């Protein structure tokens, strides 16, 4: 991952400050570049800000996901990260622990804004966090934390996606300064020379001097202590720059000391580190023998490295071949070259040694692959799957307490085969002395002794150079073999124990005698060497005496011996290790004793020896004393290369001594410098990737997030197969620390393990260990299978099978069976069958019954998938017989269960019951074994067989027993499957109380599994169930569950579901009469929908929100803003004319009901215009009818009559059913009433009533309307158009109809027939009605679907004309109002299907109402 830091602009300064600024900015470009910005430190305003009360200590950490293949940001990836963060945010402890590992304090999480708010309380916290940020660990930790499992299973996506993080560098730098001031004293570098002053309180310093400063409360002045001299005084704030890197503050505070002692001279070399040859520019005649003698013009080859920051290097005279110290000022470059661009400060030998260095010598445990792939696929039958409600995957990995993994592997071999047992180990030596993964309490061993212990088993005992009686004679010194050994004039391999850091010479040379006796003997050797002029023996004896004295902390005595050894006149470079050990140990003693007068003599040479010569072998831990002033020099000189090389030597020294706490800061610093120096010149990371070492150190310190981050960033260069298995081991151990359920096997290992398995497979594929390759492929196939990625599992299973040509058949059987099983799961039974048949043929020639049974069982599954039931039954029977013959009860139970499943699939529940009962009888004796999922599945099938035969009690019993078994086994997956089935069962039985109980159990399981998606689905179901109970208490319970579902929708970032859930909460609040809260939640639903930028969805949410009030009985006008200001503008913007017409109709209906006729007229007029655009005649008819109703309410009767007639003109020309006739009756009655009483036109009224009468005679299901028409015609002919005879006929017809309606006649159809034959007027009216109907068009289901609601009132007033008038008016008005309302709810856009449906509903409802009222 790539970490980015925002930048800022520089300000103008004076010439000297600009020069200093350039030096500071030159320290680095990436990583902690914000520490190097001088303006953040040397301005008084910044200091005031850092300590001011208004300064916020909060730091914003932004994160973003992007694809390497595209420069554009990936919005989908970013939204996925936000969603994941919302989910984990609910469990804040995980996030807090993550940032705790990163040495930061989490303040808050803002998923929508893509950032975290963190803070720091100490400088050390900022130091650690800034280091992790620069090394990429922060980004990688977030990647491991936020990316779901599917991300790691997709190698293409994994290689393309990265997470970037950044912080505000200015703010972080100011916070750093503030924390420095709070801690009291800190270290700073002088930006310029001090001004000449006579005041004694002023401190005199030079540019780049290190000063420890302290805030004493004086504005613009600090108290300072010069590190080089220890002098105290006052320094101006503006001339001091706090050291930019927190590492420097920590180092100088933890390891105090003087910065003097090593001075730098300018040379002619431009590169920081080079190799090659130089030319002498002066004649040099050295005073000491270890310096090189040369003349001007001589060529000198650099031995090791030439480091420009040091004044000396080791050179070889090309003419004489002599080696010695050379002063940098005495030569100029001739033919030099910088180190490899990939090797910034290390030699190739050092790079290889460091890459292979293992601070923890614990190898991967025995049977790592066996544990990852401890399958029983080759010995245990697989269960079939009937449909999607069955278990999607029954883990074929037995629990550890049931069977040892190695034993499980052995069982794959033929029961009677004499083939040696198979051991799944990449290399037997890898596993020979390992501990199990479960022994988590055992820390890594960082001892070199463990490594040598195994080597010592194969080595002979070291030679003992001491004769037990060697110093019993007076001439002992002349015959001592040790003296002879020490006097060899060149380095020998046997001298190595003399100089190593473990003092092994005490055992190898002196046989482990007490140190006091060794000292006495070495003193005799020293005296003998002096007497015999044995110079090399003299030097080595003095050196060994000095080492032992320093070990006993007798530094003065050790210094005397070391100085004496150096004075011995020998060519020191003939034994280079001795020379290095002498100078480094003597210099360390000088530093410990603070002998500054003697220090310059040895410090430069010791520095050259330890830094310039590759692959330094440490002689003593005291050599760290020599490395400390070199680090201080690197800080003063701002020399990153020198600092990096020194850090490399320090970490090697500490790690060899198992000083993990002391080594870790230097390893981190070296990795940071590696990244920094690589980025400066735009080259890849070099010289070596230390993430491998850091991973093991973080594991040792119990920092699992950092261990996993550094492990994933490891480049895997130069790694062996053993290293690859150690990476898998470390990954598993640290993953277990984050999720202890992975330890006991109750949860799958994280999907990231496939990354490390593939790395191991890549390495193994270059070797010849086919067993390891096969095992790794099987592991990968198993992991992919467990996560449901079957398409990725099959290729690895294929690869495992391909190795069978190189290994024996028994070992390839497991891979072949797994491949066949995966093919069955992926729906490729034909391919699986072709894989299994050769296996079965080969097994028939061997005595391997269990394996044959496994193949028969899988073949039967393949055949059932192909609907070849007879053949499948035969194979199941063969598998069953084999298991019975072998006494394998588990396989017998599985075979019987599969046969029961087969019977269920062909519709034979009785036969299935027989098989399943036998299977369950066997399973009950296996209850102590980990077969709960198989047992539960058999119970589910048995319950289904009972269900097919209608046995509800037996079904419930089977399912509930299955749930109990799953609960006793603590198998969350099994519980989820059974609880879901039980919930559906009780829902089908309408037992909603029990249904709710099991769905609540599903919610609890989802929370344990941390599956937010499932939890949200079950919460929605529970909400609906509680709401259906229709009580106030249940409604409030539904409200609670809906709100929980809402929170999950927000967390998952599902805007559509979130908006719909807001809407549902609003509906529930309206149902419990909390209208204000309902409106608030409905507005939230609308706002959420608007954020989706989907106008059609926003329109629908607006409309549904308005419908909550529109379809209710309270506060109906609250729907107006949602319709008018929301849905309608969206409908117009997307040109959805059907939605626009529907909304205009709702608005006009709403306003009409609320008696706001003027405004209703506007929307009704717009609805008419919109109906034409829809192209649907039904919509036009609806619109004209409603517009006529509005005009009628406004008492504009002529307009009303006009639009009613317009609506009739759009009615069908032929009456297709009684519903059409009902509509004609209703509208013609309205027109007749309108013309008679409002327009005072009796002739037109009679015509309309005759038309209504004709339609009523067709509408046999509505006799009330026919009765009213007869009475109204009788009244008109009696009063308005006098005709006594005709009036009496209509009155008689009405009286006859009344008697029939009160139950004294037969069916209504017979009555209408009699009236047709006995009343010619009726026939005439009917014919007139048909002729008039010819001018109409199609009818509306919503217009003709209403019923008469107040006919009883009209019947009681049958004899009075005024009462008849009121009845007709009430009937017609009520019918019209109901028509509008019904049309609004049903919607006119459903056209013919909806119309027909509504007609049918109307007929049934009218008949029901008639029976009720009469």
Automatic annotation (TrEMBL):
This is SH3 domain-containing protein. It comes from Pygocentrus nattereri (Red-bellied piranha). PROSITE patterns: SH3, TPR. One of its GO terms (biological process) is regulation of ERBB signaling pathway. It comes from the Eukaryota. The keyword Zinc does not apply. Keywords: SH3 domain, TPR repeat. Residues 14-26 have a biased composition (Acidic residues).
């Amino acid at each position: 991952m790539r970490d980015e830091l925002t930048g800022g602009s520089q300000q103008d300064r004076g010439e000297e400050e600009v020069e200093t600024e350039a030096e500071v900015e030159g320290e680095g470009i990436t990583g902690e570049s914000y520490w190097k910005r001088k303006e953040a430190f040397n301005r008084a305003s910044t200091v005031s800000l850092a300590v001011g009360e208004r300064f916020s200590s909060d730091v914003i950490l932004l994160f973003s996901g992007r694809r390497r293949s595209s420069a554009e940001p990936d919005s989908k990836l970013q939204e996925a990260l936000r969603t994941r963060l919302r989910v984990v945010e609910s469990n804040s402890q995980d996030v807090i622990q993550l940032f705790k590992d990163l040495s930061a304090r989490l303040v808050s999480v803002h998923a929508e804004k893509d950032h975290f708010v963190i803070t720091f309380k100490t400088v050390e916290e900022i130091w650690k966090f800034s280091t992790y940020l620069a090394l990429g660990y922060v980004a990688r930790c977030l990647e491991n934390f936020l990316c779901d499992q599917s991300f790691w299973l997709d190698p293409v996506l994994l290689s393309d996606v990265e997470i970037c993080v950044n912080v505000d560098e200015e703010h972080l730098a100011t916070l750093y300064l503030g924390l420095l001031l709070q801690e009291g004293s800190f270290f700073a570098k002088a930006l310029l020379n001090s001004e000449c002053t006579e005041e004694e309180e002023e401190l005199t310093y030079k540019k780049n001097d290190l000063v420890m400063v302290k805030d004493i409360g004086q504005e613009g002045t600090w108290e300072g202590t010069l590190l080089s001299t220890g002098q105290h005084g006052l320094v101006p704030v503006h001339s001091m720059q706090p050291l930019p890197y927190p590492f420097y503050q920590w180092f100088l505070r933890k390891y105090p000391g003087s910065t003097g002692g090593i001075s730098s001279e300018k040379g002619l070399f431009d590169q920081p580190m080079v190799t090659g040859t130089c030319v002498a520019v002066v004649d040099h005649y050295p005073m000491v023998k270890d310096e090189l003698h040369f003349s001007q013009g001589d060529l000198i080859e650099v031995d090791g490295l030439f480091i420009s920051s040091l004044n000396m290097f080791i050179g070889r005279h090309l003419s004489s071949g002599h080696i010695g110290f050379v002063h940098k000022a005495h030569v100029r470059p001739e033919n030099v070259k910088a180190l490899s661009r990939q090797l910034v400060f290390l030699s190739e030998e050092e790079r290889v040694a460091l890459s292979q260095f293992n601070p923890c010598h614990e190898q991967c445990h025995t049977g790592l692959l066996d544990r990852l792939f401890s399958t029983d696929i080759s010995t245990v039958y697989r269960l079939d799957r009937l449909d999607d409600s069955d278990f999607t995957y029954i883990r074929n990995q037995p629990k550890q307490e049931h069977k040892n993994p190695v034993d499980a592997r052995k069982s794959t071999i033929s029961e009677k085969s004499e083939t040696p047992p198979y051991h799944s180990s990449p290399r037997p030596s890898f596993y020979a002395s390992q501990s199990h993964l479960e022994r988590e309490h055992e820390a890594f061993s960082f001892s070199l002794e463990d490594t040598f212990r195994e080597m010592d088993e194969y080595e002979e005992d070291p030679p003992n150079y001491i004769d037990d009686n060697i110093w019993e004679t007076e001439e002992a010194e002349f015959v001592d073999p040790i003296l002879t050994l020490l006097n060899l004039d060149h380095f020998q391999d046997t001298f190595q124990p003399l100089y190593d850091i473990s003092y092994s010479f005490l055992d190898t040379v002196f046989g482990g005698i007490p140190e006091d006796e060794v000292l006495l003997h070495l003193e005799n050797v020293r005296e003998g060497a002096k007497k015999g002029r044995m110079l090399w023996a003299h030097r080595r004896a003095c050196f060994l005496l000095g080492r032992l004295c320093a070990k006993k902390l007798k530094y003065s005595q050790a210094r005397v011996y070391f100085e004496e050894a150096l004075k011995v006149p020998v060519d020191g470079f003939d034994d280079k290790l001795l020379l290095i050990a002498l100078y480094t140990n003597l210099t360390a003693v000088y530093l410990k004793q603070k002998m500054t007068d003697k220090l310059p003599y040895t410090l430069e040479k010791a520095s050259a020896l330890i830094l310039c010569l590759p692959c330094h072998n440490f002689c003593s831990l005291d050599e760290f004393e020599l490395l400390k002033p070199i680090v201080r020099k690197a800080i003063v000189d701002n020399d990153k290369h020198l600092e990096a090389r020194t850090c490399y030597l320090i970490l090697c020294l500490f790690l060899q001594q198992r000083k993990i706490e002391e080594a870790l800061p230097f390893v981190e610093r070296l990795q940071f410098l590696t990244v920094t120096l690589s980025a400066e010149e735009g080259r890849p990371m070099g010289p070596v990737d230390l993430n491998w070492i850091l991973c093991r150190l973080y594991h040792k310190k119990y920092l699992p997030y950092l261990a996993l981050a550094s492990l994933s960033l490891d480049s895997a260069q130069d790694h062996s197969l053993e290293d690859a298995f150690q990476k898998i081991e470390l990954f598993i151990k640290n993953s277990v620390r984050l999720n202890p359920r992975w330890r006991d096997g109750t949860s799958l290992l994280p999907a990231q393990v496939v990354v490390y398995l593939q790395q191991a497979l890549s390495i193994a594929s270059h070797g010849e260990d086919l067993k390891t390759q096969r095992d790794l492929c099987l592991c990968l196939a198993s992991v992919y299978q467990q996560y449901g990625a079957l398409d990725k599992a099959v290729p690895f299973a294929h690869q495992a099978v391909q190795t069978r040509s190189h290994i024996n058949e028994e070992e390839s059987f497991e891979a072949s069976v797994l491949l066949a099983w995966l093919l069955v799961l992926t729906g490729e039974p034909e391919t699986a069958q072709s894989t299994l048949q050769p296996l079965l043929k080969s097994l028939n020639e061997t005595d391997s019954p269990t394996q044959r049974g496994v193949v028969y069982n899988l073949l039967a599954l393949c055949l059932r998938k192909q609907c070849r039931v007879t053949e499948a039954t035969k194979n199941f029977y063969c598998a069953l017989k084999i298991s019975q013959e072998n006494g394998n009860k588990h396989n017998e139970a599985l075979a019987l269960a599969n046969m029961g499943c087969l019977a269920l699939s062909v519709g034979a529940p009785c036969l299935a019951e027989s098989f399943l009962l036998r299977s369950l009888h066997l399973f009950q004796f296996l209850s102590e074994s980990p077969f709960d999922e198989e047992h539960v599945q058999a119970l589910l099938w048995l319950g289904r067989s009972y269900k097919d035969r209608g046995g509800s009690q037996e079904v419930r019993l089977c399912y509930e027993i299955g749930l109990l078994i799953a609960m006793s086994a603590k198998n969350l997956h099994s519980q989820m499957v059974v609880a879901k089935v039980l919930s559906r069962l009780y829902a089908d039985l309408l037992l909603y109380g029990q249904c709710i109980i099991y769905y609540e159990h599903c919610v609890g399981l989802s929370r344990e599994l941390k599956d937010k998606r499932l939890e949200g689905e079950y919460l929605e179901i529970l909400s609906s169930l509680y709401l259906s109970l229709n009580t106030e208490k249940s409604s409030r319970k539904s409200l609670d569950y809906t709100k929980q579902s809402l929170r999950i929708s927000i967390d998952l970032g599902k805007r559509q579901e979130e908006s719909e859930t807001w809407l549902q909460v609003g509906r529930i609040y309206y149902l419990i009469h909390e209208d204000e809260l309902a409106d608030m939640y409905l507005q939230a639903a609308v706002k959420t929908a608007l954020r989706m930028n989907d106008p059609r969805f926003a329109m629908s949410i607006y409309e549904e929100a308005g419908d909550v009030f529109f379809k209710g009985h309270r506060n109906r006008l609250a729907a107006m803003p949602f319709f008018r200001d929301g849905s309608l503008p969206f409908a117009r913007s997307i040109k959805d004319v059907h939605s626009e017409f529907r909304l205009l109709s709702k608005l006009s209906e709403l306003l009409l009901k609320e008696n706001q006729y003027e405004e209703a007229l506007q929307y009704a007029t717009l609805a008419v215009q919109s109906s034409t655009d829809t192209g649907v005649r039904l919509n036009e008819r609806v619109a004209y009818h409603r517009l006529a109703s509005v005009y009628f309410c406004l008492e504009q009767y002529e307009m009303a009559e006009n639009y009613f007639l317009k609506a009739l003109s759009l009615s069908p020309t032929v009456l297709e059913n009684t519903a059409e006739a009902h509509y004609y009756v209703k509208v013609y009655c309205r027109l007749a009433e309108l013309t008679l009483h409002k327009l005072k036109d009796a002739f037109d009224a009679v015509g309309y009533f005759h038309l209504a009468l004709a339609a009523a005679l067709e509408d046999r299901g509505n006799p009330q309307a026919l009765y009213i028409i007869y009475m109204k015609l009788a009244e008109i002919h009696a009063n308005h158009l006098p005709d006594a005879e005709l009036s009496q006929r209509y009155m008689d017809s009405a009286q006859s109809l009344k008697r029939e309606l009160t139950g004294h006649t037969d069916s209504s159809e017979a009555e209408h027939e009699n009236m047709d034959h006995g009343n010619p007027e009726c026939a005439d009216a009917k014919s007139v009605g048909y002729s008039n109907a010819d001018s109409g068009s199609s009818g509306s289901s919503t217009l003709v679907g209403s019923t008469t609601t107040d006919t009883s009132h009209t019947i009681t007033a049958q004899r009075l004309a005024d009462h008849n008038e009121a009845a007709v008016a009430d009937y017609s008005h009520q019918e019209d109002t109901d028509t509008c309302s019904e049309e609004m709810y049903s919607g006119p856009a459903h056209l013919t299907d909806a119309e027909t449906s509504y007609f049918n509903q109307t007929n049934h409802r009218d008949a029901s109402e008639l029976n009720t009222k009469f």
